[in-house]
Amino acid sequence: MASRPTSAGNVSRSSSMAGHQHRGHSAPLGSKGDVDGSSRSSTLPNNTFKTPRVPPPHSEDDCTSPVAVVADGGAQEALSFSPEDLASQLTLLDHPVFQAIGPDELTSCSWNKKNKQSVAPNVVAFIRRFNYVSFWTVQEVLRYPNVKLRADAMAHFIRVSKRLHELNNLNAEYAILSALQSAPLFRLTRTWAALSKKDRAAFDKLVDLFSERDNFARLREHMNGIAMKHVACTPYLGLYLTDLVYVDMAHPSSGGMESRQRQIKMNNILRIVSELQQLSHSSLSVVSHCQQYLR
Questions:
Q1: pLDDT of residue 258
Q2: 257 contact partners, CB below 8 Å, separation of at least 6
Q3: 10: which strand partners?
Q4: pLDDT below 50 — which residues of the chain?
């Protein structure tokens, strides 16, 4: 990727993964300035899932944005690669990390604790994949100095998300959609207004899958359907991490023989995750120069 965003601007979220609300289903249009002055929170649902707080440019004609200058020096850009290549290579990078997660990492509920690296290293690595893709999306859109180029970049990422959806890589799909709804991008009203109706409709449809209505009912139904079809899927793990935390709170670990209720509820979640880990995206081919860019 182009220069990797630093984590200095990360926003800590509440410890609950189910308390956020989507803010970006309809970006504000018609503002005389390019930046909406209202403050909007990120849609990322947990303090382990973060989005950068990059100050937006004062004007969408202002090319002195802290991220807009990244394009200098001839670094590769996301637009250099097709949505199909980006989606397939993100999936090939994400899925092995998901497959490496062990059941003990999940039942420990330790991915937010000080010892997370030793107790749940693969969960942490998978969360970092989500955060990295989200940071990258924001960086790539903001690297461009004017409305047209930013709209082109935003449309490109919407198409990447659509292809990720087709590949059942819900982790990277939600990372990109969350980035597009985050404050640094959501407030770029002129950029949103410059999107075609087709791209905007595609974005709204994709975002609706991740609606929090009825405890993510649509997303749960979608992921359960994928599991029933026995096709490869890289899920949005945050949904299952939330469920595990709730089970852990309702039925705390005793440190010895666990209660039957805890075992049953934990095993129900672990079974779904295990089924999704069994299949690989064997039909996808490595595109080495694209993977090199994405690493």
A1: 83
A2: none
A3: 52
A4: 2-33, 36-47, 51-74
Instruction: Name the β-bridge partners of 188.
Output: 35
Backbone phi, psi, residue 250, to 5° = -75, -30
The pLDDT value given to residue 257: 80
End-to-end CA distance of the chain: 6
Q: Which residue's entry shows tokens 């950029």?
A: 191
DSSP percent split of the chain into helix, strand, coil, nearest 5: 55, 5, 40
CA distance 139 to 259: 47
How many residues would you count in the chain?
A: 295
Query: Can you list the domains of the chain with their CATH numbers?
Result: 68-294 (1.10.840.10)
Per-residue pLDDT tens over the stretch 86-106: 999 999 999 999 999 999 999
Give me the phi and psi of 57, to 5 degrees please.
-65, 155
* CA atoms within a 13 Å half-sphere pointing along the CA-CB vector of 17: 19
Q: What is the pLDDT of residue 228?
A: 83
Contacts of residue 210, defined as CB under 8 A and 6 or more positions apart, other chains included, come to 22, 174, 177, 216, 218, 219, 236
